[in-house]
Amino acid sequence: MRRLLLALPFALLPLAAAQANEHNHAHTDEHGSLDAHEHGAARLNVVLDGQALELQLESPAMNLAGFEHAANSAADKAKVATVRSQLQDPQALFGLNAGDCTLSEQELESALFEEAAHDEQHADEDESEHSEIHAQYQLDCKKPSELKQLNLSELFKRFPATEKIQVQLIGPSGQQGVELTPAKPSLSF
Fold first, then answer.
1. pLDDT average, residue stretch 1-22
2. Mean pLDDT score of the chain, rounded to an integer?
3. Residue-range domain boundaries for the chain
């Protein structure tokens, strides 16, 4: 699964650099430069290659859980469990209602998902660091030609602190990079 996703940033590097350069020229005074860890912002890499659809979501934990510290309270642990549960449904999160796709692999990674004992043991260390959540999915699509768009409406609805998602996509129509928001949540393949 990671083979295609690892190649994605290199394939889209010229497109991303051009878009970032254009974005910075247009909004330098208003927004400044984009940090690697920016609350409200996430990244999504998507590759549709034959019948294989791979997605990789990277987001600050703040966008999804509402906090980045170790989940020590019962309320925080319940929130982390809810986030994990919601991330286990990529078809709903990414609006994949066509293509007859089934989930074949899934990896959810975050310091927040570690055992409570680990969190308590490293709580002091985790307090000073930014926590991220990484979700990787591989789906097998029997009818990939029926996949027409990616719709992140549900993702924005479930995680309202996510204000924008930088999407890099390689699909049948070529490469594209776009910023999706709650007001503009979809992208054609």
1. 47
2. 81
3. 2-9+41-188
Residue 171, both tokens: 């699909």
Q: What is the pLDDT of residue 116?
A: 38
What secondary structure does DSSP assign to the chain, as a single string?
-HHHHHHHHHHHHHHHHHHHHHHHHHHHHHH-SPPSS-TTEEEEEEEEETTEEEEEEEEEHHHHHS--S---SHHHHHHHHHHHHHHT-HHHHTT--SS-EEEEEEEEEEGGGS-HHHHHHTHHHHHTS--EEEEEEEEEES-GGG--EEE-HHHHHH-TT--EEEEEEEETTEEEEEEE-SSS-EEE-
Give this prediction's pTM.
0.76
